[in-house]
Amino acid sequence: QVQLVESGGGLVQAGGTLRLSCTTATPNNVFNMYTMGWYMQAPGKQRELVASRTTYGLTDYADSVKGRFTISRDNAKNTVDLQMDSLKPDDTAVYYCNTKPPRFTWGQGTQVTVSS
Questions:
Q1: Taking a C-beta distance cutoff of 8 angstroms, is the pair 95, 20 a contact?
Q2: Closest Cα to residue 110, out of 11, 28, 37, 44?
Q3: Among residues 53, 81, 80, 84, which one has the least CA distance to residue 66?
Q4: Residue among 2, 20, 31 nearest 95 (CA)
């Protein structure tokens, strides 16, 4: 069973930056096989996909983060990162990584809080 581990969240002011990272708890190359994505779940809302990247490097972003977030992956290190720039209070959420569509059990996520 793949265990997803997210890190890098925190409290920042609007306009600030964060970099989230995702890896697996046990060494494997599972990320190399799938399109990977970052999802956000804001308080009282459903989890939604905000960014994805295929194994070939094609990316896709939700309109709300386009131009501000960048997803990257390192297949050799089995990591998927999310660079978050120009953060807004509406970006406040717990962020999770998973495949697109989700195949693995969700990790604990990492909390991002953006103050105005």
A1: yes
A2: 11
A3: 84
A4: 20
The answer to whether residue 65 scores a pLDDT higher than 90 is: yes
Is residue 68 helix, strand or coil?
coil
111 CB contacts (<8 Å, ≥6 apart)?
Answer: 9, 10, 93, 94, 95
Give, rounded to a whole angstrom, the gap between the first and last alpha carbons of the chain.
Answer: 39
Report phi then psi at 52, rounded to 5.
Answer: -145, 155
CA 107 to each of CA 46, 58, 71: distance values in angstroms, whole numbers, following the listed order: 16, 24, 18
Q: Specify whether the backbone of 109 is left (phi greater than 0), alpha (psi in -120 to 50) or beta.
A: left
Using alpha carbons, list the distances in angstroms from residue 111 to 20, 33, 78, 94, 100.
10, 27, 22, 4, 21
Reported as a single tens digit per residue, the pLDDT across 2-23 is 889 999 999 999 999 999 999 9
Query: What is d(CA 88, CA 67) in angstroms, rounded to the nearest whole number?
Result: 13
